[in-house]
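Key result, reporting period 2: structure in, sequence out.
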C-alpha cells in the first residue's frame, strides 16, 4: 500500500487526537508538523507548548511554530521542502493563503467541529451547544481561501444530550473526527469521493466567544442559561453575583422551561439536597455546582452551607 505524505497543522488537544490517529495508521506518513508558538499558561504564565507540538516531538517529527504563516515565507519554503502530498488542518488557529494551499498535490483538508455549513468560524462546538442544537458532528472539508466554505468530503453526526458540556463535546467530536481520517479522506485521495458544495443559504457563523458574554442574564430563559453554562465550560465560563461577590456557575439543569414570574426573576425559589432553584425570565433553573470568589468549585449543598443561603437571596447585580 502506497503511503500518503502528510503535513499536519493543528494546535489544541482536539487536533492532537487526530494527529495521534494519523501516526497510528500506516497509510499516512507525517513528514512535518506546524503548530502555534508556545503560549503563557497557568498561574505563573510559563511558556507552554501546544498539545500537538508535545505529541510531534515525542515522535521525533520536524515541528515549525510560525507566529503568522502567511507573513513568514521562509517557513513556507521549509514546508515545501517536506514534499508532502496533502495538508491536514485541525484547529490550527491561523488563516492559510493560496500559496500554501497550492503547495500540495491533493491540497489541504480540514476537520471542523460542526455539520457544515452550520457554524463556520472560531467556536463551532460552543456555539452549537449555546444554541441548544440537538444534533451536531464533524465535517471533513476541502480548505479554500474563504473561511470554512470548502466542499464537504464527509460528515459524522451525533445526537447531543442535555447534560453534555463543551469539555465533553470536544473529546467526543475529536474521536468522531478520526473516523473521517480512517475512511473518507482515503476515499477522497483515491478519487472515489468528491467534495460536495455547501448550501450557502444554510450558513451560520460561530463567532469567537467574548468574555463579556460570561455574565448570566437572569431575564433569559432557563434553557438559554443552561446552554450558556455548558457551552462556556471550557472558557470563559459563566458567572453571576451574590451580595456583591462574583460566583462562577459550573453546572446546571433545567427544572422548568415554562414557569414565569417577572417579580421573582433571579430569586432563589428553593434549596434542595443537591441543587438551588432560581427563577429565570422564563422557566426555573437548578444550580448544581458553584464557585465563590477565591474558593474551589463545590456542590450546591456545600455552597449553601458556606454562604448561609436561604430563599430570600437573589442572584445578579
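The corresponding designed sequence is given below.
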Amino acid at each position: 500500500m502506497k503511503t500518503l505524505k502528510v503535513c499536519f497543522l493543528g494546535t489544541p488537544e482536539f487536533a492532537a487526537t487526530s494527529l495521534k490517529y494519523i501516526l497510528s495508521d500506516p497509510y499516512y506518513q507525517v513528514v512535518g508538523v506546524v503548530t502555534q508558538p508556545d503560549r503563557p499558561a497557568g498561574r505563573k504564565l510559563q511558556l507552554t507548548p501546544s498539545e500537538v507540538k508535545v505529541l510531534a516531538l515525542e515522535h521525533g517529527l520536524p515541528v515549525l511554530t510560525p507566529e503568522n504563516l502567511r507573513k513568514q515565507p521562509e517557513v513556507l519554503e521549509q514546508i515545501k521542502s517536506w514534499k508532502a502530498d496533502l495538508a491536514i488542518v485541525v484547529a490550527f488557529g491561523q488563516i492559510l493563503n493560496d500559496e500554501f494551499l497550492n503547495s500540495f498535490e491533493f491540497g489541504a483538508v480540514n476537520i471542523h467541529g460542526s455539520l457544515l455549513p452550520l457554524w463556520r468560524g472560531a467556536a463551532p462546538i460552543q456555539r452549537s451547544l449555546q444554541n441548544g442544537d440537538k444534533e451536531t458532528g464533524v465535517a471533513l472539508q476541502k480548505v479554500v481561501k474563504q473561511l470554512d466554505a470548502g466542499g464537504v468530503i464527509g460528515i459524522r453526526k451525533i445526537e447531543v444530550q442535555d447534560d453534555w458540556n463543551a469539555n465533553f463535546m470536544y473529546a467526543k467530536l475529536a474521536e468522531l473526527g478520526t473516523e473521517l481520517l480512517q475512511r473518507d479522506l482515503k476515499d477522497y485521495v483515491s478519487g472515489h469521493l468528491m467534495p460536495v458544495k455547501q448550501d450557502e443559504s444554510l450558513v451560520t457563523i460561530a463567532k469567537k466567544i467574548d468574555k463579556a458574554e460570561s455574565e448570566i442574564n437572569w431575564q433569559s430563559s432557563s434553557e438559554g442559561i443552561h446552554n450558556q453554562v455548558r457551552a462556556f465550560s471550557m472558557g470563559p465560563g459563566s458567572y453571576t453575583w451574590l451580595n456583591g461577590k462574583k460566583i462562577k456557575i459550573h453546572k446546571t439543569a433545567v427544572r422548568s422551561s415554562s414557569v414565569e414570574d417577572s417579580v421573582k426573576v433571579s430569586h432563589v425559589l428553593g434549596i434542595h439536597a443537591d441543587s438551588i432553584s432560581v427563577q429565570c425570565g422564563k422557566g426555573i433553573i437548578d444550580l448544581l455546582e458553584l464557585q465563590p470568589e477565591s474558593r474551589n468549585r463545590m456542590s450546591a449543598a456545600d455552597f449553601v452551607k458556606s454562604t448561609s443561603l436561604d430563599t430570600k437571596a437573589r442572584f445578579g447585580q
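The helical segments are 13-24, 51-58, 73-81, 98-101, 124-130, 166-189, 222-231, 300-307. The mean pLDDT is 96. This case is discussed further under Risks and Mitigation.
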